[in-house]
Automatic annotation (TrEMBL):
Name used for this protein in its record: Fibronectin type-III domain-containing protein
Record-annotated Fibronectin type-III domain positions: 166-254
Domain of life: Bacteria
Source lineage: Bacteria, Bacillati, Bacillota, Bacilli, Bacillales
């Protein structure tokens, strides 16, 4: 007797297809995030009107007809990649241009035939450095209409609200088991996003959002790791560009030291402090030397000549400091 043994092979395929220019893309693909044409960060110059239809993303598009000079769209974003979503049709301009950080390329919204293709991917740019990018889209002239429907960028990026100022004077001060951040309040902001990296210049991870005060305490930190921070302002119209970067290293070492500050007028100031306080002073000094932070620093005098007061602090001015010395000792 002959026995036939059959082996059944299963073929499993993974769909790695990514949309290409000219495809319909009704929703952002994985790794992308979509912003509507009505976003406050998108600015329209020239003659534009709104057209509504359920086939458009979020039900509307911006249109300019028989474009003249100076009809353009501008916006800025933080990320590494960009897509433009529009409506392809036979009356659309094919000689449009887009300029990203001063580099100009052309793209088309033209489609032959009598049917349009809504939610179409008309332009894509990837491989940009992770940074803030300025974009200007100039409308072409060789046909009738130009459509603006949506913008796709990195799912970790964002469009910038150019009407919202960035926080300034961000400073980071290390203490025992925490790093204290502070910055100047932005008048039009309703909240702030705090972002952190272990690499100077980022990329940054958002560690806190909807922060309503101009201060934040980061307790999820590790000793001997230098952390870099930026803060953005937020309101209903979007998010600002980032603040200056500030950095600090978590303090964990015990002990005390005599901090002697030598001033430009020839005088000296001497303080008996914990190493945590000394390192907080050094962090402020180095940040200010790099161009960030406040001009003055408050040093707690503790029990030094306290007198009848509940506390006493000396405020030292950065540009009045000639140099300083630290003499560590072990408290017994």
């Amino acid at each position: 007797m002959v026995i036939f043994v059959g082996v059944l092979f299963f073929s499993v395929q993974t769909n790695t297809y990514a949309s290409a220019v000219g495809d319909q893309l009704t929703a952002p693909e994985a790794g992308w995030k979509r912003f509507d044409d009505t976003h406050a960060g998108v600015k329209y110059t020239g003659n534009w009107y709104t057209k509504t239809d359920t086939s458009y993303y979020n039900g509307s598009v911006k249109v300019t007809t028989k474009a003249a000079d100076n009809n353009y769209v501008s916006f800025s974003f933080y990320g590494t990649k960009l897509r433009l979503i529009a409506d392809l049709y036979s009356d659309r301009h094919s000689n449009n241009t887009i300029t990203i950080d001063g580099v100009t390329e052309s793209f088309s919204e033209y489609r032959a035939g009598s049917t349009s293709l809504t939610n179409a991917l008309v332009y894509e740019k990837t491989g940009l450095p992770l940074a803030f990018h300025t974009v200007s889209v100039t409308v072409g002239h060789n046909r009738t209409n130009f459509i603006m429907d949506a913008i796709d960028i990195d799912d970790t990026g964002y469009l910038i609200n150019t009407n919202l100022s960035a926080p300034v004077d961000l400073s980071a001060a290390a203490a025992i088991e925490e790093i204290n951040l502070s910055w100047t309040k932005v008048t039009a902001a309703t909240s702030y996003n705090v972002k952190r990296s272990t690499t100077e210049g980022g990329p940054y991870e958002t560690i806190a959002s909807s922060v309503t005060n101009a201060t934040y305490i980061d307790i999820n930190v590790t000793s001997d790791v230098k952390y870099y921070y930026v803060v953005t302002a937020v309101n209903t119209a979007g998010e600002s560009i980032s603040s200056n970067e500030a950095s600090a290293i978590l303090l964990g070492q015990p002990g005390n030291a005599i901090l002697t500050v030598y001033l430009t007028n020839g005088s000296e100031k001497e303080y008996d402090l914990s190493m945590s306080e000394v390192n907080a002073f050094i962090a402020w000094y180095e940040n200010k030397q790099a161009g960030t932070g406040k001009a003055s620093y408050a040093i707690d005098k503790h029990d030094n000549n306290k007198g009848p007061f509940t506390s006493r602090k000396d405020y030292v001015i950065f540009d009045k400091i000639l140099t300083f010395s630290v003499d560590e000792y072990s408290a017994k």
